[in-house]
Amino acid sequence: MTQESLTEKLATHLMRPVDEATQQRARLHLLDWLGCVAGARTSGVGSLPIETSGVPGSRGSWLGNVLEMDDIHRSSILHPGPVVWGSIFGQSVTDFDDMLTAATRGYETVIAIGSTFDDRHYSNWHNTSTAGIFGAAVAACFSSQQKPSLENLVNAMGLAGSVSGGLWQMRHEDTVAKQWHISHAAETGRRAARAALEDATGPRFILEGPQGLYAATCENPKPMIFPDQWRIHEVSFKPWGACRHAHPAIDAALELKAKLGSLDGDIQVGTYADAIKFCDRPDPKTVFDAKFSLQHAVAVVAERGVPQLADFEPEAIASLTDVRARVSVSEAGGITKRYPEHYGARLTCGGAHVELVDTLGDPERPMPKEGIIDKARALITWGELPSREADRAVDLALNGDDPTAISKMLTGWLS
Q1: Of 76, 314, 353, 390, which one's alpha carbon is 20 to 30 angstroms from that of 211?
Q2: Sequence-distant (≥ 6) Cβ neighbours of residue 4 within 8 angstroms
């Protein structure tokens, strides 16, 4: 009997039906992505003369991550939304239910594969890109006019995975490579799907084979699991425009400030090792630096309160220099042990402290539907679009039944 590959097992898992509650959850993630795209339309990336395939999702895949407010899955340490929705809207989609089920299955794929990566992988590779290309291929298969067979899915994942990539070197330089990773994953995943639906074949053992992705990038890959519930329900929403690794410190700072009335004097942040690895930036120079700075994020709360997108712009970076100097960061071993299943932080100031296990927007501390809608409205306003466009986006994403109307809206936003 021929051995069944991991992508074959995953493809079988993906074929099960998507329930109504999960489709409704996917609508919220669609709205969240639309807000992130709209908010970034006036950014430096948004103004680049980017060559795309001429459909709105192609440009949207560039923009969905710019403001660092895209959705995130904790244990796989990746952002499914920008890749999955960018892939779906990078082609002509006509059926809303098909679109929602395609997105659900795309999220499942990204998370299932990303959750198998180990520390060695994440130390060098951008999980959103390396796992995202698989989810993009699956989402594109299920949102195409030609419905995929199990064999089509396996081939699409094999083709996509054979060119998976995305190195973290871009964290150390002021570039748009992070957005390029996501765009490349969405576009290439979609091309892999199209080829597979036309009977192109890809390697079945692209993950666990002797020269597959695990052999190239992992030391001890984790087992792939296949839960009964669709894992889009595990995905967190991000309320603040900074790296998710900074969010636990932001939340702890907000709670301690509410308790004390102010955060005066020295502030100590204890958090998990990856938060320090990615976000220990005491002297940020750029907007990107500020979004990846624990010191700046806590300084914003200490001086200004609830973070706004403007708090990570150049004026705020310059004005908060003295406050940042009062913030020190160190690893807290107990918090590291809970990571990545839980993103936590401890904040100490004036002899008082707060320690949080989970972060606002996580399933354990969910953002209410109204909060997700308010976030989308704020992002659309930040992108210099009129309030009627926010109304339109909310209605189309949460109540609509026409993907073409969303495509037309995106075209108007991004033209």
Answers
A1: 76
A2: none
Q: What angle do CA 129, 376, 37 make, to 5 degrees?
A: 40
Q: Are 355 and 251 in contact (CB under 8 A)?
A: no
- pLDDT at position 50: 65
- Give the CATH number for residue 187: 1.10.4100.10
> Does the pLDDT at position 281 exceed 90?
yes
The strand ranges marked E within 360-411 are none
Strands (E), 160-294: 267-271
d(C-alpha 349, C-alpha 257), whole Å? 9
Question: How far apart, in whole angstroms, are the C-alpha atoms of residue 278 and residue 35?
Answer: 25
The answer to whether residues 157 and 216 belong to one domain is: yes
Please state, in angstroms and as integers, the Cα–Cα distance from residue 326 to each residue in 234, 263, 308, 320, 329, following that order. 35, 10, 21, 10, 10
pLDDT at 57: 61
What's the Cα-to-Cα distance from 110 to each of 88, 132, 149, 365, rounded to whole Å? Answer: 14, 5, 19, 23
Tally of domains in the chain: 2
When the pLDDT of each residue in the chain is averaged and rounded to a whole number, the result is: 95
Both 67 and 129 in a single domain? Answer: yes
Same domain, residue pair 374 and 344: no
d(CA 109, CA 43): 30
How far is the C-alpha of 365 from the C-alpha of 90, rounded, in Å?
33
- Domain hosting 172: range is 6-239+366-414
Residue 336 shares a structural domain with residue 381: no
Does the pLDDT at position 337 exceed 60? yes
User: Could you tell me which of 128, 95, 133, 104 has the C-alpha nearest to residue 30?
Assistant: 104
CA distance 382 to 31: 15
- What span, in angstroms and rounded, lies between the C-alpha atoms of 204 and 284? 45
Contact 281, 171 (CB under 8 A): no
Residue type at 85? W
Does residue 193 lie in a domain region?
A: yes
Backbone angles phi, psi at 290, to 5 degrees: -65, -40
Q: Evaluate whether residue 388 is within a structural domain.
A: yes
Query: Does residue 1 belong to any structural domain of this protein?
Result: no
